[in-house]
Structure prediction request, 92 residues.
Amino acid sequence: MAKHYIELGDGSWGIVACYGVTARDTEEVASLLRALGCSEKNIYKSIQIITRKLNSAFTFSNTELKMSLVCIGETTSSDQLINSLVHEAKHV
Prediction:
């Protein structure tokens, strides 16, 4: 899994972007979601989304912390990776 931190604008909103997420990364993803205040139920759902199917992704945001986590699982092509990234960026 690759992970990058991105600041928007003057740093008033932060994004942790993870891509190439696999089942081996579930503990780290769960830890990031907990840090953003995600419930255990939604952590479980998010992990299921990202690890069970190719070309899957999710975004979780905490408006109080002004932070988002964007996770993109394994993709079938670079075009699909870009498609998922653009789609999730709309959620941020």
Observations:
- Residues 10-77 form one domain.
- Strands lie at 2-8, 13-21, 57-62, 67-73.
- DSSP finds three helices and four strands in the chain.
